[in-house]
């Protein structure tokens, strides 16, 4: 079942000779339960793409469909509600509310939507992420890795259609990065969660089921056999062993 699809997605800045084509006709899809990494260098368009996938910015043209809904057919208020209910975000900067404790931060988006959190589900997420002993701590009392765990729990708590992670380990050291990404993957598998992560770190990208590469606003085509061949080593094919069904992409 397809959860996410973009069709001929474009984002241009400026006009004429000064026009910058941040995205230039991106076609991309993600199946339910997949964990996909989007890799690319700085300026490749990966952050712009994530903003489009999450409805945080509107494209010049093209469409983004999330859970069967063309999100840019919605007006701003409706898009905000849809985003809060259907899309979970994990950012590099955590974005926790400093005056709220761990539990309050986790359930905040649900309460903003006028709903009650599924406490049994939320408590299970908290347990898996190792936050049970930190529920009443403020963000300032947590390490970077613990704050990112809270951000992951917050993203999962509303049971969204998809989670978008923007360089989620960018502020963490190597060991903590592996720990946090491992937990992100485990919780995703445990709850059948669909995830898309952007990263410039190809080692971290290997934790995903499938790796795609973006360059100069374009998704690059897969190499023969689905091998990822962009100067990285050992990324290989996806969980189904080929580029068209979970394979990685070639630069």
Describe this structure in words.
- It is a single chain.
- The protein has 251 residues and is of the alpha/beta class.
- It has one domain: P-loop containing nucleotide triphosphate hydrolases (Rossmann fold).
- It is 30% helix and 24% strand.
- The chain is built from 7 helices and 10 strands.
- The chain has helices spanning 46-53, 76-86, 102-112, 119-128, 144-157, 174-190, 202-205; strands at residues 2-13, 20-31, 35-39, 61-66, 69-70, 87-91, 162-166, 195-199, 210-215, 218-219.
- The strands form 2 sheets. Strands 6-7-8-3-9-10 form a 6-stranded mixed β-sheet, with helices on both faces. The chain has a 4-stranded antiparallel β-sheet with strand order 2-1-4-5, covered by helices on one side.
- Strand 4 (61-66) and strand 5 form a beta hairpin.
- Helix 3 runs parallel beside helix 5 and helix 4 packs antiparallel against helix 5 (144-157).
- The chain is globular, with a radius of gyration of 18 Å.
- The model is unreliable at 223-251 (pLDDT under 50).
The proportion of residues forming helix, as a percent range, comes to 25-40%
Largest sheet: 6 strands, mixed
Total count of helical runs of at least 4 residues:
7
Ends: how far apart? Answer: 27 Å
Low-confidence stretches: 223-251
Query: Would you count the extended β strands for me?
Result: 10
| Topology as a string of helices (H) and strands (E) | EEEHEEHEHHHEHEHEE
Assign the structural class, choosing from mainly alpha, mainly beta, alpha/beta, alpha+beta, or little secondary structure: alpha/beta
Strand content: 15-25%
- Summed up, the domain count is 1
Name the assembly state: single chain
Please compute the radius of gyration using only Cα atoms.
18 Å
Give the strand order of the largest sheet, numbering strands 1, 2, ... along the chain.
Answer: 6-7-8-3-9-10
Mean pLDDT across all amino acids:
85
